[in-house]
Structure formats: C-alpha cells, structure tokens
Amino acid sequence: MAEVLVLVDHIDGTPKKVTFELLTKARELGEPSAVFLGAPGQSAAALESLGRYGAQKVYVGESEEIAGFLTAPKAEIIAQLVQDKSPVAVLFPSSAEGKEVAARVAVRTGSGLLADAVDLDADGTATQSVFGGGVEVKAKVTVGTNLVTIRPNSTPPVEQAGAATVEQLTVSVSDAAKGAKIVESVVESKGGRPDLGDASVVVSGGRGVGAAEGFGVIEALADSLGAAVGASRAATDAGWYPHQNQVGQTGRTVSPQLYIAAGISGAIQHRAGMQTSKTIVAINKDPEAPIFELADFGLVGDLFTVVPALTEEITKRKN
Amino acid sequence: MLHAPFDPEVGAHVNIVVLVKQVPDTWAERKLQDSDKTLDRAAVDVVMNEIDEYAVEEALQIKEASGGEVTIVTMGPDRAVETIRKALSMGADKAVHLSDEALHGSCALQTSYALSKVLGSLEFDLVICGSESTDARLSIMAPLLAERLGLPQLSGARKVTVEGGTVRIERQTESGYDVVEASTPAIISVVEKINEPRYPSFKGIMAAKKKPLTSLTIADAGIEADKVGLASATSMVESFSNRPPRQAGQIVKDEGDGGVKVAEFLASRKFI
Ligand SMILES: Cc1cc2nc3c(=O)[nH]c(=O)nc-3n(C[C@H](O)[C@H](O)[C@H](O)COP(=O)(O)OP(=O)(O)OC[C@H]3O[C@@H](n4cnc5c(N)ncnc54)[C@H](O)[C@@H]3O)c2cc1C
Known about the structure:
The structure holds 2 protein chains of 2 kinds.
Chain A: E1 3-7, E2 10-11, E3 14-15, H1 17-29, E4 31-38, H2 47-52, E5 57-62, H3 64-68, H4 72-85, E6 89-93, H5 96-109, E7 113-120, E8 126-130, E9 135-141, E10 146-150, E11 165-168, E12 181-187, E13 201-205, H6 215-225, E14 228-231, H7 233-237, E15 258-262, H8 268-271, E16 279-284, E17 297-300, H9 303-318
Helix pairs in contact in A: 4-5, 6-9
Chain B: E1 16-19, E2 22-24, E3 46-48, H1 50-66, E4 70-75, H2 81-90, E5 94-98, H3 108-120, E6 126-130, H4 141-149, E7 153-163, E8 166-172, E9 176-183, E10 186-190, H5 202-208, E11 213-216, E12 235-242, E13 250-253, H6 258-268
Parallel strand pairs in B: 1-4, 1-6, 4-5, 5-11, 6-10, 7-10
Antiparallel strand pairs in B: 2-3, 7-8, 8-9
Helix pairs in contact in B: 2-5, 3-4
C-alpha cells in the first residue's frame, strides 16, 4: 500500500493531539509512517502512542542540530525521505512551524503545497476555508508529491493499532541549513492548560476583562471546561495576558469545537483567528457588538457576573 | 546573489528590501470568479496588506538608526502602484513593481519563484516582509524565499536588532519566544507586535511622487513564462462554494440567570 508520511508535532517527545488526527487522516490515503524529528532520546516517549494511532513505521531522526536551528534541518530530512520513499502524500500540522517546514519541502522537492486544510479526502483533495470562512475551496496538488498542512481539530483522532517499526535516520544537517540559529528558548506560558492550537474548547477574554487580575474569572471558566485560554490583541497589548495566547490574524488561528468569547467585540482581525470554530458563544455587555453576528449563543450581560455564575453552574452539573 | 558583505570600514549601512502586497480590503466581500476560480480583484477595494505596513516601518527604523536604503518590491497588477506609493510616502527610497499578465493566478510557490528572481537582481542585507497576507493567510513567503535564495529565515519576529553583520530576532512560539540569530543577508518576517507604523506625512506624499519606481515585466526579471501563472500552478482549485454567512444564533439578555442560560445551551450541545 502507498506510504503516507506524517510529521510528528511534539513537545519534548510527547506527541500533540494533532499528530493523532493526522495519523487518522493518513490511514484513509494509505499506510501511515510517522516522522519523528527531535533532540536525542526524545522519541522513546512517542513510539507507543504513535503505534496506537496506526503508524506502521516511525522514522526517527534525533540530533541536537534539529532543534538548534529554525525549520531548515527538518525540511532537509523530510525532503530526503520524500526522495527515498516516494510517499503519496506528506501531512504536516498547520502550526507556524509545520507550515514553514512544508513550504521548504515543497521548494526542495518541486511539489505543490496546500496549507491550512480543514479536511482531506482519500484521493488527496483538500478542503480549505478561505476569506474568513466565507468561501470553501476544494483543491488538489498537481505537481510532485501531495504536501498538505492540516489544521488541528479537523478530524477526531481514532485509535487503530500499527506496528510502529522504528527506522533510525542518519542525521547530518548541512551547513546551508544552519543559517538561523536558535540561541535561546524562553518559556512564558502558564503551564497546566491545553495548548491553544490543540484544545477542543477555548475560552478567550478581551478588553472587557479590564485588567490582568480579571483573567482569573476567564481561567476559572476554562479550567471547569478543560479549556485553553485565549485573548484578544487588546488584552495582550495591555500586558494582561501573554502574547502567545493571542487569537487572531497575527495571533493563533484556532478552530475548536467550542469557542467562548468574553468581553471581546469581534474585530475582523480577531474573527480571522476563530471564525472556523464549530460552536461560538459570546458574552458581551454591548448588544451591538459584532461578535454576536457569529455567535451560536450570545449573552448580553456583564462578564463579571455571567462568567463566574457559568463556572459555578458547570461545576455543579459535573458533580 | 548580489549583496554587499558587511564592511566595518564603510559603517553600518543596511540596505533593505521590503516585500509589500496589495490585498482586498478585509471588510470587503471577497469572491472567487466562476471563470478561472481566482480572486475577483477588480470587484473589491484594495489596500496595502496590513502587516506589510509594519514591515515598512521596521525597515525605516533600521535605516534611520544605521543608514542605508529601503527598496519596496511588489508583485501585482497595475493598480498595485497605489500601494507602492503609500510605502514610498512612508519614507522608502525606491520601488520595483513586477507586473505582468502572465503572473495572474500564480500560487504561492510560483510567486516565491518570481520574487526570488527580482530579489536576485537587487543588492540587500535584509529582506523584510509581513508575517502573512490577509487574503491568502499562508505565512510561508519567508521560508519559501529563504529556501530558494539560500538565505537564513528569521520568521515571526516581534523584535529585530541588527548589529554589524548579525541580525537577531525574537520569534513568537507557542510557549513563549525564541531568540534566533543569523548573519546577513537574511530574510525576516514581522508580526504586528513589532512597532507602530507611521502615517505618511504631506511632505512624504509629495516626495513619493518623485521617487524612482522601476516597472518590470517577467521578461525583464528573467522569469520563465511557463513557470508562473494559473496554467502551471502547483495546485489547482477544483471547486468552491460560497458558504452562506454564519447564521446568527440565539441572543439572550442577562436577567440574573445569564450563567445558567449559557450552561443550558452548552448542555444542549453536549459540552457539559
Ligand atoms: C495588523 C493588525 C493585526 C491585528 N491582529 C489581531 C489579532 O491577532 N487578534 C486580535 O484580537 N486583534 C487583532 N488586532 C486588533 C483588532 O483590530 C481589535 O483592536 C481587537 O481585537 C480588539 O480587542 P477587544 O475585542 O478585546 O477590545 P474592544 O474592541 O475594545 O472590545 C471590548 C469589548 O468588551 C465589551 N465589554 C467591556 N466590558 C465588559 C464587561 N464587563 N462585560 C462584558 N463585556 C464587556 C465591550 O462591550 C466591547 O465589545 C489587529 C489589528 C491590526 C491593525
């Protein structure tokens, strides 16, 4: 059966949910092989779960040099694999890095690239949602290998055992791929919550939250739902919440099952990052706020009374 | 490629090319044309891609600190001249406009090929572009060009510092930020955190009219006609559908039971 490569998205070896979604999709196109690239020793933590979601093979490339430079080493390794294994398709997570690696692989292998797919058919046709969700496009790569980046939460991950046979890659990163050196990695995020891009529920706060302390009520609601926390640019610019939690045009693009916006007006740049969410709930005291145009359920009210009451009600219903 | 290696004798002059794109106004209704399934660009208001203003601003700030020259490069139809003028009126020194019917319908990969040809004929220490365009939203032009030109890719920058022949950025990541370093020449893409773009002054607008603007056809730029345009695009739109605008749902006013009302809705959708 035709081989389909899946680039594993992981944090220190632990695969993110999107990896399992990609493996699930890959099974419709052919036989999935996971490509694990990271620092030495990291793959050990990943093999079991990659097999559980159907990886027949796992290509493992481990080297300090992979993590030490921006995107080019990964692209170099994947382009080599494409040449050696002639897969029918390569699936990448639609993260900033996933798209950048895919772009480089496209140039290196002379292939077409479809980015930000929200669905992928068995014949390789990708569905993309463009112009802020207003237009749905079905497109196909016409040159070279089918390269597709897929948004998290596009498909539910389904388990199906695979052999996960390890094939170790010899990694030698060329000098050309060492142009952009990562000299420092600073972790700023508040731990313990799911990653924004991966989360199936996101609770976001905006200028209406009023202050950094105000995000306490947003976090409490998020925790009652097992959700990630997002923020509008007004809130990140004010320093109330970290920049990497910004949702929108220049922040993260999320498409969770449920998006709750509290104290966010719904500016076009914010919408660009959350419009493809499956269900949208808005809490805003201004009945004219444009966010209500998108909301499946809108509550006109003060977030400082509504959000804590909602958290309490959810907690009550859970027990 | 033609570029001036950093020469401490000469000083810190930094020559910068800024890639600027004209896009449909995000507030306008954007449609694909039935005929060839490309964006109906004639039917909408156009503006400079928002984040490109930040790219121009960053280039101007580096120039003001170090000296050097800022060149705008734009690929797009004739009317993209309006956008080029805006960048020049902000303070850029000159511009190159790649415009040719043959480019119509080019995909991102072909666009990067065409731009790489134009860049190959210019002298620069840095190329700066915006992190994404509001129409295609791909965020891949910097890595595509980096790969084609063999330049270091410094993408997603929220801060840029240039010191001698070394450029450093802070790159937003999913858990914080990375500090990434490269030697010039390099290609940078910036996010909107990086600065506050200036408004063109009246003086700037008047001066822009006299600044050099070179128009190139694909032949002028050495671009092979069969490598660009819709017919040889690396991906093809098979079909599209204009989705009906999202139906506004139920809007309820808080009467003291707002929290419970939202919880009931969430329960009805099986979220709790
Ligand atoms: C190049 C560029 C890129 C951008 N990128 C992004 C981006 O990635 N993400 C993004 O979000 N924005 C982005 N923006 C900014 C965007 O234009 C808006 O300014 C921003 O989204 C507004 O944030 P907000 O909705 O929180 O604030 P506002 O628009 O000020 O809205 C606050 C809302 O809170 C409501 N409110 C106030 N108090 C309460 C209360 N007690 N209870 C309930 N509701 C209350 C108000 O009624 C109001 O609707 C970008 C802008 C530019 C120019």
